[in-house]
Amino acid sequence: MSLARGLAESRDEHASAEVEVTVITQTPRKEFRDEELPFRVVREPNLWELSRLLWTADLIHVAGPALSPLLLGLLMRKPVVVEHHGFQLICPTGQLFIESSGEPCPGHFMAGNRGECWKCDPALGWFASRKLWLLTFVRRWLCKRATANIMPTQWLGTQLKLPNATTIHHGLVPIEAIREVRCEASQNPLVVFQGRLVTTKGALVLLEAARILFEQKVQFELLFIGDGPERAKLEALTKNPPLTGHVRFAGRLGQTQLEEVLSQASIVVVPSLGGEVFGMVAAENMQRGLPVIASDLGSLAEVLGESGITFRTGDSAELAKKIRELLQSPKCREEMSHQEKVRAAQAFPVSKMVHEHRLLYEKLSKREDLTSLSFN
């Protein structure tokens, strides 16, 4: 949405539109008002409609390695840009995470240990696991032939190892954050998890860290914002001491309610175990000026830079130590807040993301070599 709107609203020196944007999506319209957008939206096209639309395009931008538009674009000899939002080219499940053991994947597919991928997620079953495995080869073959591959972090580029690759960070839409000072004398500090409650997001790691801290008599509240299949399991664990009465689950929140809740937060923790190619939750809370502690996955470490705090992925004891140290140092939290705001404003403005995409498109339209193009 941010990219399409930014491109559609860009103007040249004569106030004329520079880019005509059509967004093609499989997402149903439902109650959304497409007519209020500054670009055309085509929803759920059949193969013939998709082919016709792609044939009229000067450039095709694919969000992830979607097979149909990628293959059709290459057959039509159109410039095709693939923006990668996952690990589908190096991991059949796209998460770079071993569901059966709950651990980050060391990279079995790229290392040639591809039989390990078949048993990564037992819930998929024999047929589905092998289908995803086969599609990984197909996607990788097609993306190697794309005109350009865009990565949201340089770290992702080192993992996918694709030609014609460049890095363009995601852009952050400005958030009207509501920052209020909590009365620490009457209220405990609030530590927040924000995201889907799924295995890869590491909520269980945070809960174990909280248990360690509560046993050490560290006073704070823990709030989980979000929903997902892990919620029931996590809620059941909080009924046992020492977690009892200290942990709340807010579910999914609307934007206004989310900002109100986060205005009272002291720390945001991003304990992901895998699946992160950028870390939007970390970046958005940096923009809000909320101190962020995140696992040391390559993408999260790159987004935080020197402004945040990282801990060893999956290490609850180290996470507990980092939370305790930050809770005990209001001065450190204040310094982090300032540093994170500065980094988010400099590295991730939406205007920068749109501008860098336009430069890339212009270069591709002239059939120029990408080797000289570097944004980061």
Tell me what the structure shows.
The protein has 376 residues and is an alpha/beta fold. It is built from 15 helices and 14 strands. It has helices at residues 2-8, 47-55, 67-75, 108-111, 115-118, 125-143, 154-160, 203-215, 231-237, 255-262, 280-288, 298-304, 316-327, 330-347, 350-365, and strands spanning 22-25, 40-43, 60-63, 80-83, 97-98, 103-104, 148-151, 165-167, 190-194, 221-225, 247-251, 267-270, 292-295, 309-311. Helix 2 packs across helix 3 and helix 8 packs across helix 13.
Per CATH, the class of the largest domain reads Alpha Beta
Rg (CA only) = 22 Å
Number of domains: 2
**Could you report the average pLDDT, rounded to the nearest whole number?**
92
pLDDT < 50 stretches: 181-186
CATH superfamily grouping of the largest domain: Glycogen Phosphorylase B
Strand content: 5-15%
Q: The biggest beta sheet, please?
A: 6 strands, parallel
Beta strands, count: 14
Morphology call: globular
The span between the termini is 23 Å
User: How much helicity do the residues have?
Assistant: 25-40%
- What class would the helix/strand composition place it in? alpha/beta
Topology:
Layout: H1 2-8, E1 22-25, E2 40-43, H2 47-55, E3 60-63, H3 67-75, E4 80-83, E5 97-98, E6 103-104, H4 108-111, H5 115-118, H6 125-143, E7 148-151, H7 154-160, E8 165-167, E9 190-194, H8 203-215, E10 221-225, H9 231-237, E11 247-251, H10 255-262, E12 267-270, H11 280-288, E13 292-295, H12 298-304, E14 309-311, H13 316-327, H14 330-347, H15 350-365
Parallel strand pairs: 1-2, 3-4, 4-7, 7-8, 9-10, 9-12, 10-11, 12-13, 13-14
Antiparallel strand pairs: 5-6
Helix pairs in contact: 1-15, 2-3, 3-6, 8-13, 11-14
